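Recall from the previous lesson that a structure prediction takes nothing but the amino acid sequence as input. Here we apply that procedure to Solute-binding protein family 3/N-terminal domain-containing protein from Thalassospira tepidiphila. The sequence below is the only information supplied.
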Amino acid sequence: MRLFGTASVLIALMIVMWQPISVRAQPCLQLAGLEDAIGREVGEKLEHIFAGHNPCLSVQYMPASRSEALLLSDEIDGDFPRLPEFAPYVGAKAVMVPVPLISGKGVLVTSDPAIQSVDDLGAVTLGLRRGTKWSSEAAGGHINRIFLPSYDIVVDMFLRRRLDAFLIESNNLKQYEAQLASATKTVVRQGHAYLWLSKKNEKYLPEITRVLTQSDFQTLNAYDQ
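The prediction returns the following tokens.
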């Protein structure tokens, strides 16, 4: 009887082993999301919506500059949130899922109410979060730029007058409202941000698009990346 049971287990294992790979459970796609509040909120929603789907999605959180490098080297399967203008940076190595995850504004924060645009900055020092593409593009030809690893550092330097101005997304700006109550804030950009898949995962583009479109996922009115 015990022998029969052992044989049954072996037969079952052999059946599983001989199944085509497509029939077996597929690992989740490994995505990179920004390690801030909005990145985690979107990431948790994506994991929840795609649980039980093929593909399922798993998110790890990191700085934007690192996630871009990992996407370009094929070490992750996707990256979010990114603007359509992310295209020149990834070339043919990634494709955009055409369902917006985030909608929002890019804001210029200054200590001078006379400054209403990046062009008005003159020679003053402008702070940018490292790896944030929209702000690098919005800064245009402004020469006196300082790239910093986090908005906590950017805001701290601004409050200590080591920066004259900085660019930030509207959602991230909310957590500094009390500290920046007297600062001048000007919207310099509006748009949507998306999930980008590595080229090797382009086959999943139709299914991911379908699931996002048909799910209860709602575009967050938050910020651009």
